[in-house]
Amino acid sequence: MPYDDSPPPTRRARPLSVAAALVAVFLTAVGCGAAQEADGSGAAPPRPGADAASPTAPTPTGKQPRPSGPASASPSDSGSDSAKPLPKGPLTGRTVVIDPGHNPGNRDHTREINEKVDIGTGRKECDTTGTSTDDGYAEARFTLDVSHRLRTLLEAEGARVRLTHDADRPFGPCIDERARIGNEAKADAVVSVHADGSAVGNRGFHVILPAGVKGGGADTSKIVRSSADLGARIAGHFVRTTGSAPSNYIGGNTGLDTRNDLGGLNLSTVPKVFVECGNMRDPKDAALLTSASWRQKAAQGLADGITSYLKG
Asked: Treating both helix axes as pointing N-terminal to C-terminal, what angle do 224-242 and 292-311 enclose, rounded to 10 degrees?
């Protein structure tokens, strides 16, 4: 039986009114998220018959780099922008770029995605295949599904939404192009959607924030504070909406982690974060990630955090 990727009915984002209330919600929820792993969300054990597992083994944190090259499409011809008229709402006039981690086609283009690209402070692989659950539900499929749900929610609030890709290209885009798409869109916020590939027993979500980086083509000095604000709001709402606890293996139970080795963050000139929604290699987290109803909660948590940030 295939995984259910059909989106449940749209619910409008419900941001908290002030940042202080958000932080209080986040801190209160930290202690109870793990107990809600089977919270009636419809989560079920992963089912067989999904996409084949990634041919490239994940790193300990599930993060592997990505390509540019001949197959890369420019942001204007990617076909991933909002094209329909948008309703008036609290996010009217705002632009959000959603970056679905990896690409389902990456596994068929390992040579191209292993080519190094400049990330400002060095060189790193263009992209990676991403990770998967033990029965083969691919991270790239998960990220696209959550990104589609998130786009629908944000558009309902009036935001103009662009995806960096929509599985509409053979592979990629590379990490440098992903950053460039957000920059050229002059996005008010960019969120890169991922799922981790860590050890069994490592559970929960975390939000990756850009470190202060300056070198080569990288300079995050103007986005460190705004990105940290965006990330904290997303973390608080993610706890509240999904019932998932912050990571028990990264971020010291805060749900926040700062890194200086990700090209997608280093090269960004607009507020940007990565969100690892859970650990695909842990059976309990995998049961959530493979549940359509939980993915809708994840999208809602992301949307609420983004809306809170943009209205703050």
From this structure: 140
